[in-house]
Structures are given as C-alpha cells and as structure tokens.
C-alpha cells in the first residue's frame, strides 16, 4: 500500500543527508572564494532576527541556482518570492555587473528586510524588489517589455505560495526568451505530491500537482521534476526550459 502523509509532516531529516552536505560543502562552498559569504551569513541571521520564517534556500541550493544562472548566461532574472533576499544575493552575486534581478514580494516587512540584506551585500544596483501580488506584478512587467522599457527575462526562479504556482509559471512564460530555464521550488514536499488523496485536502499539494500536470501538457516547454535531499529536508524542484 502506498504511504500516506498528513499535512503537518513537512520536514524530514536523515543523518546521511546532513553528513553528505557537511562533507561536500566543506570542499565546494569555500568562504574565501565567495566574496558574498559574509553578506549571505548576514542575510540569513538578519532575516531570522527580524521574524522572517526559516524557509530560505540553503547554501548548496543557492550556489546551484547561481551556477545555473551563469550557465544560462542570464542578464535579466525574475524571482517570484523574495523573502529575505538570500537567493537573490546568490544569483545576483554570480552574474556580471550589467545583469539585473527583479524580485517580487507580497509582504512589505519581508521586502524591507530583503532590501537591508541586499544593501549590505552591495547589490542594490543589481536587485530590484517589486512589492505586490505576483499575479498583478508580472503582467505589468510584461507590459513594460512589450513597450520596450525592459528586456525579456532569461532566468526565472519561483518560490512562493504553492496554490498559485501554475499562474506564476504561465504568466512568466509571457515575459521570457526562448531557452529560458524556469525553476519552481518545493514541489515534492516529502513525496506528498504523489498522494492523490492528500491533494484533495491540501491546497498546496493540489497546486503543485496542477502545475506539474499542466506543464506536462504544455507543448511550449520541456520539464522535469528533480527530487532532492539535504540538511534541510526531502523536497525537490521543477525545472523547465522554454522552447
């Protein structure tokens, strides 16, 4: 019989995952090679101290996003869900000086804290935070693109409320170039995404399943779900590329 999950089981830890992260990070996340190391440490601590939830990307994930943005040659990044700016610092810090990150945040307090963290990192000229619901902000940004006021986005990271994952994804499709990678975070949730019964009770799981199934039927993109384990949790992300 398939394992069933309850909605309060969102975290899972395993000593092996912690050990692998500790080993790999020791060799691959060199503080001396990352000029934003102290800024990232500050961003994490300042966010917690200011009352933000402890749900930011973890270091290895932040570096993975930064590397993927470099591989894509990104110059105009769209982030949905700023939180404290931790992922934005990783991404912006890895890109050329003329690259820009536009991040969307719903909560005014989160935006304020993120701007503190980004300013401390010296990245205020590269990262702009737009306040408001992404469902409203992305169409405005798309209109600016159509008006020639900004360039199309070439890298997208979505890490916001799961109920609206598909809406954010579809809106982002209207504002990106061909071959743009789109990451959607936290789509596995300890395997809950595979539980059809739970999806009828949990709107977050339902939203994720709606995303995966709709993206699979969308001929404009190719996509895959990658499961991950780490010091933080068992989860995963959806990675799509625009044709």
UniProtKB/TrEMBL annotation:
One of its GO terms (molecular function) is O-methyltransferase activity. Keywords: Methyltransferase, S-adenosyl-L-methionine, Transferase. InterPro entries: Cation-dep_OMT, SAM-dependent_MTases_sf, SAM_O-MeTrfase. It holds the Pfam family Methyltransf_3. GO terms for biological process: methylation. Gene3D superfamilies: Vaccinia Virus protein VP39. It comes from the Eukaryota. PANTHER family: CAFFEOYL-COA O-METHYLTRANSFERASE 3-RELATED, O-METHYLTRANSFERASE-RELATED. Belongs to the class I-like SAM-binding methyltransferase superfamily. Cation-dependent O-methyltransferase family. This is O-methyltransferase. It comes from Exophiala mesophila. The lineage of its organism: Eukaryota, Fungi, Dikarya, Ascomycota, Pezizomycotina.
């Amino acid at each position: 019989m398939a394992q069933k999950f309850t909605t309060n089981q969102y975290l899972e830890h395993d000593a092996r995952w912690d050990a692998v992260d500790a080993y790999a990070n020791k060799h691959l996340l060199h503080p001396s090679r990352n000029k934003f190391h102290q800024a990232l440490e500050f961003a994490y601590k300042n966010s917690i101290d200011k009352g933000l939830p402890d749900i930011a990307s973890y270091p290895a994930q932040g570096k993975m996003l930064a590397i993927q943005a470099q591989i894509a040659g990104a110059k105009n990044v769209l982030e949905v869900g700023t939180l404290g700016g931790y992922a934005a610092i990783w991404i912006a810090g890895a890109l050329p000086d003329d690259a820009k990150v536009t991040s969307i945040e719903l909560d005014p307090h989160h935006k304020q804290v993120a701007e503190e963290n980004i300013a401390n990192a010296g990245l205020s000229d590269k990262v702009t935070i737009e306040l408001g619901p992404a469902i409203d902000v992305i169409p405005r940004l798309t209109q600016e693109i159509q008006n020639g006021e900004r360039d199309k986005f070439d890298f997208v990271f979505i890490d916001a409320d799961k109920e609206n994952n598909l809406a954010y994804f579809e809106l982002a499709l209207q504002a990106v170039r061909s071959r743009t990678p789109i990451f959607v975070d936290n789509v596995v949730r300890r395997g809950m995404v595979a539980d059809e019964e739970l999806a009828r009770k949990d709107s977050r799981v339902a939203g994720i399943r709606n995303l995966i199934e709709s993206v699979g039927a969308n001929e404009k993109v190719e996509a895959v779900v990658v499961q991950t384990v780490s010091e933080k949790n068992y989860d995963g992300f959806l990675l799509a590329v625009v044709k």
